[in-house]
Design a protein that fits this description.
heterodimer, A: alpha+beta, Rossmann fold, Phosphatase 2c, domain 1, 6-stranded antiparallel beta sheet, 5-stranded parallel beta sheet, about 35% helix, elongated, B: alpha/beta, Transcription Regulator spoIIAA, 5-stranded mixed beta sheet, 4 helices, about 20% strand, globular
Chain lengths: ~550, ~110
């Protein structure tokens, strides 16, 4: 038995014209765990090397037809054999042969008669050294490639806008999960000088470094174009430029341009851009035009969507939908990502990224494409209404609440209670009305002040947010306003009213009509709850 | 501003209250009563579905003013929800509340 078996045994080519020697060396090397092939002279050796690649050649110096040095010269001249280690067998009585062999490129020599143990040791150490050298060179290359990719990754990450981001009353969060270190998915937020915000997601075909380069260039160019052009015109121009370059790569682009309540959506080749409210998908925008760079001179359509507080817009790359087989199934993808229905909280960028990775892992063992999601949330919870702090807005806001209450609710109580609370929010909260007039007993002055303040420009930007809250056995209304908080004393259940008292009635009404009144700590928000079966406090 | 109708029968003014009596029209109804009423004032709530505390405060103010002039203020034809708001604020104990305007007028005649 060989004392050590080299796994995946190395093949040694033994070249000697004496068959006894070939047998001896073969036996020695075989015993040490090597596989051996043989050649009878130099010409034969070169022929063997044509069709096989041994780990080492044991080469006799003196041979007919072509001697060892001749073979060496030939081997070192051919790229495919130049690096194979060679041990030359020389006569101990001819030291010049050794010099000649080493000069010709032999890695080592052994003098005849051959010492078996020495032969095996030399062969082993040469093969080991050769392997080490090869590994070192490979890992040096790999290491430098890895470092380059890491740098590219950090450059690409730094080009993404900071997340989460705020614009007007929108909160924006996005995350990319590249399948390699760098990828062909990027997103961007472009704020134009004329007051628009464009959120864009770009998915370049393929992935890896080349796609990343195209994505970076596309992004930079679009950024520039958007400054002085509409969304659709910018995309059309971008398409012309990219098509002319003929890189063979094209980009799918989805973009949302926000201006006031209107979201203008363009989608060239990505899964549907979604507008959702609470648990309902209201709009899906697809097919505004061909992907960027396929054909020049193309037009792009824009779909105008009207948004409300509480709405959510979602842009995704096909890496989000594709693992599940249906590129258009954004509904399923959004549910899996926890983005549908829209809850009160927006995920952080890290959470969104984790959700994307988790979701794609559920379908495949590894990411096969970059997966990106960009989420734009308009402030306000689901089922919320924003109204200006004007007395005229109270009536329609109350109707809005009545339209959403469950059937067991006493509608006239709810009407009176919400009217009262909203009126108080309008007068005292949003308007910061200090009812000096009321304290002075001048009721006309008080009402006049309230009405004139409601008209004033200074209050125009203030708003009251109204939300309905559904629980299995309860229905709630939350009223939140900016402006002055309700003083803490006034938040307590009111004491018994005296006869002919003109103030304090509002809170008395509110506490009497609702099962439960819950104030926020800052005194700018109150929740009014009705519980099913729980009778409201009836006057005694 | 909402127009509030006032009807006169002899020395009695009947003020027709709007569907919602709130901060939007409180000023209009206060003006109507102060400028256009005479004698006994009956507030007719037969069309009114809801009322808020601003309006309640104003009604209390009017009541006090009319008393200074030795005039009377009566409320009539309150819907259940409006009556409830008066009950909650205990104002039902302050005001004379009648089922119908006719009853309010009849009572007024008796009182005077």
């Amino acid at each position: 038995m060989p004392d050590e078996v080299i796994p995946d045994a190395h093949v040694i080519l033994v070249v000697d014209d004496a068959s006894a020697n070939r047998r001896l060396y073969s036996w020695l090397l075989g015993k040490a765990g090597f596989r051996v092939c043989t050649a009878t002279d130099g010409v034969d050796a070169l022929a063997v090397l044509e069709r096989s690649r041994p780990s080492l050649v044991l080469l006799d110096f003196w041979m007919p037809r072509l001697d060892g040095v001749g073979v060496l010269h030939e081997m070192r001249a051919r790229p495919e054999t130049a690096r194979i280690p060679v041990v030359m067998l020389t006569s101990s009585s001819a030291p010049d042969d050794i010099d000649e062999a080493l000069e010709a490129g032999a890695n080592d020599y052994i003098t005849k008669p051959v010492n078996g143990r020495l032969l095996v040791t030399r062969v082993r150490s040469l093969i080991q050294a050769d392997q080490d050298r090869e590994h070192a060179s490979m890992s040096r290359e790999a290491e430098s490639l890895r470092r380059e990719l890491e740098e590219a990754q950090s450059v690409q990450q730094s080009q993404l806008p900071a997340m989460p981001s705020r614009w007007s009353d929108w909160s924006i969060v996005g995350a990319v999960a590249p399948c390699g270190r760098v990828g062909g998915d990027v997103f961007d937020l472009v704020q134009t000088d004329d007051g628009r915000l464009v959120a864009v997601l770009i998915d370049v075909t393929g992935h890896g470094t080349a796609s990343a380069l195209v994505a970076a260039e596309t992004r930079a160019e679009l950024r520039h174009l958007l400054q002085s052009r509409s969304l659709e015109e910018s995309i059309a121009r971008l398409n012309d430029h990219v098509a002319r370059r003929e890189t063979g790569r094209y980009s799918c682009v989805a973009a949302v341009e926000l201006q006031g309540d209107v979201a203008r959506v363009l989608n060239a080749g990505l899964p549907p851009v979604i507008l959702l409210r609470a648990d309902t998908i209201l709009e899906r925008v697809v097919g505004s035009g061909l992907p960027i760079g396929m054909f020049g001179s193309r037009g792009y359509d824009v779909t105008e969507l009207h948004t409300q507080p509480g709405d959510r817009l979602v842009l995704v790359s096909d890496g989000i939908t594709e693992p599940f087989g249906n590129i258009d199934d954004v509904d399923g993808a959004l549910q899996r990502l926890g983005l549908l229905p829209r809850g009160d909280a927006q995920p952080s960028p890290e959470e969104l990224r984790e959700d994307i990775l988790r979701m794609t892992r559920e379908s495949t063992t590894e990411l096969i494409d970059d997966a990106t999601a960009l989420v734009l949330d308009r402030d306000g919870t689901a089922g919320a209404l924003r109204l200006p702090p004007r007395p005229e807005a109270v009536g329609s806001a109350v109707r809005w609440v009545l339209g959403q209450c469950p059937p067991w609710v006493d509608r006239s109580s709810l009407d009176s209670g919400v009217t009262e609370a909203l009126t108080n929010a309008v007068l005292h909260g949003a308007l910061e009305l200090v009812s000096g007039a009321r304290r002075a007993g001048d009721y006309d002055g008080y009402v006049r002040d309230a009405l004139s303040l409601a008209e004033s420009d200074a209050r125009r930007h203030r708003s009251i947010e109204l939300a309905v809250l559904h629980e299995p056995e309860a229905f709630g209304v939350r009223i939140r306003w900016d402006g002055a908080p309700c003083p803490s004393g006034a938040r307590l259940p009111p004491p018994e009213l005296g006869p002919l008292q003109e103030s304090g009635m509002g809170m008395t009404i509110i506490h009497a009509l609702f099962s439960h009144v819950r104030w926020s700590e800052d005194g700018r928000s109150v929740e009014l709850w009705l519980t099913r079966g729980g009778a409201t406090t009836r006057p005694r | 501003m909402t127009e509030i109708s006032v009807a006169y029968v002899g020395d009695v003014s009947t003020v027709r209250m709007p569907r919602r009596v709130d901060v939007n029209n409180t000023q209009a109804f206060v003006d109507a009563v102060r400028q256009r009423s005479q004698g006994l004032v009956v507030l007719d709530f037969s069309c009114t579905e809801s009322i808020d505390s601003t309006a309640l405060g104003a009604i209390v103010q009017l009541y006090k003013l009319l008393r200074l002039e030795e005039r009377d203020l009566r409320l009539a034809a309150l819907s259940e929800s409006v009556r409830r708001v008066f009950e909650i604020t205990r104002l039902d104990r302050v005001f004379d509340i009648f089922q119908t305007t006719e009853e309010a007028l009849a009572a007024g005649k008796q009182a005077s």
